[in-house]
Amino acid sequence: MHNRLQRLGYAAPFNDDQVFGDATAAMVEAFQRARGLPITGEVDATTWSRLVEAGWHLGDRLLYLTRPFQRGDDVAELQIRLAQLGFDPGRIDGIFGTLLDGALIDFQRNRALEPTGVLTRATLLELWRMTSIMADRNLVTEARDRAGFNELPSDLVVIAGSTPLADAVARDWTSGNLVRLESSNPDEIATTANGANAAIVLSFQFNGEIQGIHIHYWASYRSHSRRGEQLASSLAAALANRDLLPRVEVTGMALPVLRETRMTTLQVEHGAYDHQVDEIATIMNELVRKVLHNETLTSI
Hints:
The protein is an alpha/beta fold. The protein folds into 3 domains: about 1-55, Muramoyl-pentapeptide Carboxypeptidase, domain 1 (Orthogonal Bundle), CATH 1.10.101; about 75-145, Muramoyl-pentapeptide Carboxypeptidase, domain 1; about 155-290, Zn-dependent exopeptidases (Aminopeptidase). It is about 45% helix and about 15% strand. It has helices spanning about 1-5, 20-35, 45-55, 75-85, 100-110, 120-130, 140-145, 165-170, 185-195, 225-240, 255-260, 275-290, and strands at about 155-160, 175-180, 200-205, 215-220, 225, 250-255, 265-270. Strands 1, 2, 3, 4, 5, 6 and 7 form a 7-stranded mixed β-sheet that branches. α8 packs across α12 and α10 (about 225-240) runs antiparallel to α12 (about 275-290). The longest helix has 16 residues, at about 275-290. The chain starts with a helix and ends in an 8-residue tail after the last helix.
């Protein structure tokens, strides 16, 4: 782990490479902060997997569509380079999925290469040659998002988690399609939401240590969920207009549930608000309905 951190530029005077001390914890926290992960200083499964992914550089290995999907910083760089050239690989998330496969094939056809969907050396050299003269171009994924080309796939909303606020939001949902999951497991939520082609996912988690509500939307690899940021920010503004409601913090992060779900997803952490959950739920649902109907998001 020390070697991986040092190769990524997180240098520290480790007194003993075999000991996880304060210096190691500080470097882990710095890595977590840079990667949009909870800053704990502890190496859990998510932190370790992101640490491994960060060690891949474009050209280190063949990239192509596999099951399970390939993941890593090299995949993210491939997505960015294709997006700079106008080929849409989907969200920049470091996951080699079907959209990236299609974008890579389109690039190969465009450059008169064999359209295999495999990042061969010939394809990589052509990709480097093309992007070296267009490094400052905006990403087509961001441009499509700003222009409103990324339409919602359905009107289905997934509400996940077993908390009082999750129950109140689901109970108050009286229009449109709803899938209710008691689970807070990111893989289960993503499997259900992606399989159902949902439009929005609200994942709730109780945290008795926080004062207020923390809302997280996807942000990583030089990109973010524009619709997620707008929904989270509008919700924070709406709650701020109610003096009795809790303070809301909005943060772009790369939590597993935000990365694994393909649609607009919010991770909502909250404390105990027994007498306020119904009003909060009403505000949340009103804003979600506005998103589903493509209406302008304003404070409720």
